Give the backbone structure.
Amino acid sequence: MAQQVRSADFTEEQLGYVYENRRYVGTKETLGFILWDAAQTMNINGYSNRFITNIVKVDLGYQAVAKSVNSVWDIVNDIFTAAVVEKTRTRWGKFRPYLLGLALPGAIITILYWCMPFFFAGKAADSISKFIFYLMLEILREGVSTFQSISRTGLLATITPHPVDRTRLITVANFASGFFGENIPAQIMTILLDVIDNKAHKNGTSMEKQLRGAFTGMGVATTVISSLMSFWFFMNSKERVLQSVSPPKISDSLRSIVNNKPILLLTLSEFLAGFGISGSEMDYYIDVLHFASMVLLAGIPSVPISPLSYSFVPWFRRKFSSRFLYIVSKNIGNFLYIFVFLFGCIGFNPKTFKGGLYLKRWPMLFAMATWEFIWTFFFGLRSVISTELYNESMDYCEWKNGYRTEAMTSVAKGLAAKVSASVSGVVTTALKKMVGYDQNAYTKGTEQPDKVKFYIFSMFTIIPVLTGSFGIIPMLFYDLNGKKKERMYAELLSRRKEASLAASEGDLDSIREMEEKIKAARNEKH
């Protein structure tokens, strides 16, 4: 019969949760995880706003309406999807069925998205048919991506029961996936845009057809390749952390969020940070400097630092608390942008909106290369710490309640961030229209007004700092560190061993009894 695990049953040596540093994820699955991780960024999604605004040419006002409608749908869809996933129990796992079943539909919808310029060639920006098609695609993509994102997050939290093994997997994947060309599509797209842009400016011709072909070709190709990479991993992956035998009630799922202090603080932090109004770095490079390749050149000095940054992660984790590392890794970029903004404003005349180093390629290349170099030292940490804090929060839920609620928790966390991000997105799009941004200037090879150029520069440097730094405040109270975290994992590892042994013997009654005892202890405490 399963017994309640107590922290007093462990020695001080055992309370260091690395004492059972076993690897559960094998070489083949690790390789698949690396490919999957690379597939998440093997796309040209960074150009989505430019694609819709300047290539498909959906009116900015219509875009604001679409964002508002999709935000409401997002909230309803997330709650429904979380409830469905939370109740799922199959022999393939809780999350894998959705990742496998929606792989093909998701790819088809995304391909249709990138083909829109050909479907609506010659249509006006305020075309109703174009707007409706765009809105429907956004709603469908949101529905499919919600199932996929919840399942991706859940799979990562359950792929291995040991925290050290999980940290190793995340670190190796983030380090190694770069060698599989995850950034190559964006880099190719950047070079293509510069070639097309410079040729059009030199000849004084339109570049609409060339841009349409470049975006559609790259969008479709990356969708197919990344979908195949992801599907291969889903086929070869496993969920190793056992879910509770009986699916938790909706009320239990909601209660598990309320009494999970770590996840509440992470959620509030992302909610407040989401209100940050932020423009696009690529808008600045393309619309102001006409130099998209600057994103590549600015990153050259930091190339050796990027892989090395992962080797700093264990040292950071030993020396500093998770709270401090999260705050620093999340906000170092915005802090450095303050200096970029001040540097770019040298020589700027606020009355006429003329002058300023931000209009010059080479001084700003120096500024951005410096920003990139310093920021890259924290790249590995940023890639690992956010995911690890969320996974720790899920383990905290299991430790405290006796069951896991990855779906409902990830949705609650995501919803909070989406609400604030949606408000920010609508405001950002509306502001772009208000300042007089010309949607046709790019394809026609003409210049944006001086006022608009300064607005674009400010929107990706100083404005995010002023509007998005409030997310720091909640994380000042995060306390899942030190002995508390070690005790949690010592108890969890022992409890999981016992549950796994009972499951292998078909003794589900013992597992249910253990789950009930944990719930009873929780209820008695509260």
About this structure: The two ends are 26 Å apart (CA to CA). The CA atoms of residues 429 and 505 lie 58 Å apart.
